[in-house]
Amino acid sequence: MNWLLDNFDLIGRLSVEHLQLAIPPIIFGLVIAIPLGWLAYRFKLTRGLLLTTAGLLYTIPSLALLPILPAILGISFLSPLNLTIALTIYAVAIMARSVADALESVDPAVRQAATAMGFGAWRRFWTVEFPLAGPVILAGLRVTAVSTISLVTVGILIGVENLGYLFTNGFQRRIIPEILTGVVMVVLIALVIDFLLDRLGRLLMPWSKSRTRAQRLAEKSSRTVVNPWGGTA
Amino acid sequence: MNLLAEAFAWIFSADRLGGSSPLLASIGQHLFYTFLALVIAALIAMPVGFFIGHTGRGRGLAIGVSGAARAVPSFGLILLLVLVIGVTQKPLAATIAFVLLGIPSILAGAYAGLEAIDRRVIDAARAVGMTEWQILWRVEVPLGLPLLIGGLRAGALQIVATVVLAAYVDLGGLGTYIIKGLALKQYDSILGSAIVIVALALVLDGVFALAQKFVVPRGVAAGRTQEVRSSPSRRRVVVGTPIEQGKR
Predict the structure, then answer these.
(1) Interatomic CA distance for residues A181 and A18, integer angstroms
(2) Is the ipTM above a cut-off of 0.85?
(3) Which of A88, A143, A150 to mutate to test the interface with B (most CBs of B within 10 A)?
């Protein structure tokens, strides 16, 4: 308890640094994954290619990806940029699949109705498909946010300061409360961000209130409806 | 590219192939910890997952556990357990950490596999007079196997990545070369071992992916034709990862 009271400033500063490191990859991940997810959803060829690549990238352990990126990209190994790129890769790997799944969950009848009303592909995507896919994309974003926040801690091993500092410093000095504080703070920040994203989603997408029911119906209909033109619905 | 050449030179140097710090021994150590933790985690998570999937009870709990586990930083968990259990018992402490980190994926795979089964199949099994125990072992587990293996796959990769981090507490394994290389600024050993770790993870992933394909029951695979009138509302077997687990 003493350690905690004496180091309030340090914990606060590290938490801020932690958030500063975690937020950009989450945003980049979402932004990059939207076109990639659309490609994966739209074309069969790109679907296999993109989702397999995403899956393979996701299997790479973080501490192994961090040394490999500098060798390929020519950036510095011990830099925040390296960590940001690595975390963005993981975020894209999760989000691309989630965006593709989300677009697939949109009721084909709604899509056809929009087309019938004269919506072009671009306008239909942004005003009909994307908003309706929103709740599922948000679910993926919440997973991405939580795992990114927890993963930032590995950055301490390449000298990027964040809450992970409490792990290594606490371990070297054999202070259990210090490591425990670090773990609790990371979990706390992750839960707060998760909660905020959920709230933000409800605010921006009021139609996701009865999400579970609507989603289940959408999934059910997308599976049972047989496309008369022979393709998969 | 020069860095990569040096890294490969490091991998195939005489020291690595059987000198003072052979690579094969490290790979063996890494796999030993991975499978030990995976087996223990599976022994704990599978019965619980089957129970939840069969009865539908405690589903919220399982989702909550796998959701919260994603937020726990694995690096912090290892260091914490090592200090709490005792620095002298590092292997025990680290193994407990690996098991804890492997459980959520396997749990999710076990119950999601059972849950994804078409209810009518289970109703039919009950209607022909199978006991609950028979339904579980003869119907639900075989049909849920692909997703269960998906859970084991995610868990195994999670543990492999965490064993890398455990090198920080001197546990051994492939992460040792990265941690030591960082201290000594030996980039060839860092990059070389990173490449070996990636290869190990990809091979492991491939093995599980193959297993996932082969365990789809024969009758189910044969019945996968697109028949319009009797197409089930749910797919009979879902192949894939049950949920996206947090990456460590």
Answers:
(1) 14
(2) no
(3) A150
